[in-house]
Write a structure and sequence with these properties.
heterodimer, A: mainly beta, 4-stranded antiparallel β-sheet, B: 12 strands, about 55% strand, globular
Chain lengths: ~120, ~120
């Protein structure tokens, strides 16, 4: 099956610094990747959608200058949290899918990474 | 905007018994997809089952089945012969396809989840 990895799985950084999270599709080419944020005991909230070779589309309320997304290749997307603050501490999950081949929902299945826990001190 | 409601924050079931998790959604779309995802303590999201809105037949995957009522906008998940490994958070999700003017991609909207505990 399709595998998506994230690195690092856990990161601690100091307030004011930047941290980069990588999302890789290991056995397929992902034209589209998604970044979600999950607060403790809460649901996943979509932050942005990134398409390979183009700018990411951010959801309303997500600061694009704070959460920089780069999707430079068909297997790698990165999320950089700039000037991190304690309120940015959260669980960040990426997902990826390959190009849809048809109208069935399996064409739009998103394969999720294992997540990255960010703690800003 | 689409919303997904899971009215049961927590549920428990005895091993080998059957449990049903409820989900309702609100949309004006006619073409969409519905999913149930499982998130065990490892926090890895795992697809459990999916349903096309234009199909009347309820999806089934081994011990997991759904009751899809399009008019009522209801999409419940039934787990039969519950196993200890089914203990997890279960999220109902709605997906709509965005037109090219909005990026031409798709968007998953998740409910708040139901924490299911299977007791031995």
């Amino acid at each position: 099956g399709a595998v998506v990895s994230q690195h690092p799985s856990w990161v601690i950084c100091k307030s004011g610094t930047s941290v980069k999270i990588e999302c890789r599709s290991l056995d397929f080419q992902a034209t589209t990747m998604f970044w979600y944020r999950q607060f403790p005991k809460q649901s996943l909230m979509l932050m942005a959608t990134s398409n390979e070779g183009s700018k990411a589309t951010y959801e309303q309320g997500v600061e694009k200058d704070k959460f920089l997304i780069n999707h430079a290749s068909l297997t790698l997307s990165t999320l950089t949290v700039t000037s991190a603050h304690p309120e940015d501490s959260s669980f960040y999950i990426c997902s990826a899918r390959d190009p849809p081949l048809g109208p069935s929902p399996s064409s739009y299945e998103q394969y999720f990474g294992p997540g990255t826990r960010l703690t800003v001190t | 905007a689409q919303t997904v409601t899971q009215s049961q924050p927590e549920m428990s079931v005895q091993e080998a018994e059957t449990v049903t998790l409820s989900c309702t959604y609100d949309t004006s779309e006619n073409n969409y997809y519905l999913f149930w995802y499982k998130q065990p303590p490892s926090r890895q999201m795992i697809l459990v089952i999916r349903q096309e809105a234009y199909k009347q037949q309820n999806a089934t995957e081994n011990r997991f089945s759904v009751n899809f009522q399009k008019a009522a906008k209801s999409f419940s998940l039934k787990i039969s012969d519950s196993q200890l490994g089914d203990t997890a958070m279960y999220f109902c999700a709605f997906m709509k396809l965005l037109p090219p003017t909005q990026g031409g991609s798709e968007k998953l909207v998740f409910g708040k989840g139901t924490k299911l505990t299977v007791n031995p």
